[in-house]
Design a protein that fits this description.
Helices cover 40% and strands 23% of the residues. It contains three helices and four strands. β3 and β4 form a beta hairpin. It has 73 residues and is of the alpha+beta class. The protein has a four-stranded mixed sheet, sandwiched between helices. The radius of gyration is 11 Å and the shape is globular.
């Protein structure tokens, strides 16, 4: 399953999310929505107004969600 974290610079919740993924040993990619207009449109299209937005297979969520990250491990 591919996991993508949609983020932006200086985002505390984004940093917490990527650190938690690292601690769990989960591979992921990061996309900066402040530099990628298509990614920004995708996140908005899903109904999100904040970052991070994590898309893991069929599921997705916004914000720092340690419960969801643990479920991926």
């Amino acid at each position: 399953m591919s996991i993508t974290v949609y983020s932006k610079p200086s985002c505390v919740q984004c940093t917490a999310t990527t650190r938690a993924l690292d601690r769990q040993g989960i591979d992921y990619s990061v996309v900066d929505v402040s530099e990628d207009a298509e990614a920004f449109a995708l996140v908005q299209g899903l109904g999100y107004r904040q970052v991070p937005v994590v898309i893991a297979g069929e599921q997705h969520w916004a914000g720092f969600r340690p419960d969801m990250i643990s479920a991926l491990a």
